[in-house]
Amino acid sequence: MTQDDDTIRFSDIGARLRAYRLGKGLTPEALAEKLGISRAALYRAEKGEIRKIEMLTSIADELGVSLPSLLGVGVEYVSTSIGFFERMRQLEDECQQIIGLFSPMSYLLTSDGYDEILKEVLLESIPEGTDPAGEAAEAVERLLEILHARKDAFRLRRPLIVSLISSADLERFLLHGLIGRHDLPPETAERRRLMARREAEYLLAMLRDQPIGIQIGIVRGPVPATSFQIFRQPNRSVLAISPFRLGEQPNVRLGVALITSAAEAMTLHESIAERLWGDALKGAEAIAYLEAMIDKYAIADTPAAG
Length: 306
Known about the structure:
Blueprint: H1 3-23, H2 28-35, H3 39-46, H4 53-63, H5 67-71, E1 75-78, H6 81-94, E2 97-102, H7 112-124, H8 135-157, E3 160-166, H9 167-176, H10 186-209, E4 214-219, E5 227-233, E6 236-242, E7 257-260, H11 263-279, H12 283-297
Helix pairs in contact: 1-6, 2-3, 6-8, 7-8, 9-10, 10-12
């Protein structure tokens, strides 16, 4: 094992520590106090400057994760959407290519208009009467900060991306719109369907313009029930499997995501991605198919619809 590999490993531990801390809703000061260390010591730990197994054990116990998960041995389990999307941000920051099956589409390829409505959608997905202390609403704010940082970094770095999109997910997205629940006032539901149409048209424009480094495929057949992403970095690949989703009927409250570099998991999902990409509609075929889908399922884009 080279020294570079060793440095990356400790850096990864620090990144996981930060993600799990954010997922627990702890400030650096709060966690440092619980651990009985200084804020500066915790900062160094989150930068990967940690060697003592006792410190790692204390951190894992305080954050409620296993030591193997914090070390990244085997499979890393992430039980909060905040922790998961922070890990996505970290992995994307180092990757050269992203390959993934997204539902209904990759957040990284959504428009700024999508961001404008996403907060409203996530807040309304919180069941009424379940958040008297406002903790879930605060978590939405923290999650949005991470998502915006991901998109900003992606637009700045421009890693290659292969985005696989399920046609069934797109149909539901166009039929129901950007909604957090189904009992919305009719005028709100109509406005959300219009937003979904415009997002699909934004996707259509990308298919037509073919931006450098962005490949989009529409999959018409069955797809895995959970989304997955492969992050190809200079010296390794990392797989993330997630139950969390944004967009129509989002889920950012419950689930367990998996992150691993295990060879068998990587090989199997690389094979799935290759098969899905081979069967997906691309280029002119994808453009024609998405145009027909918008005409069939989307609300008409008229002043009356707004």
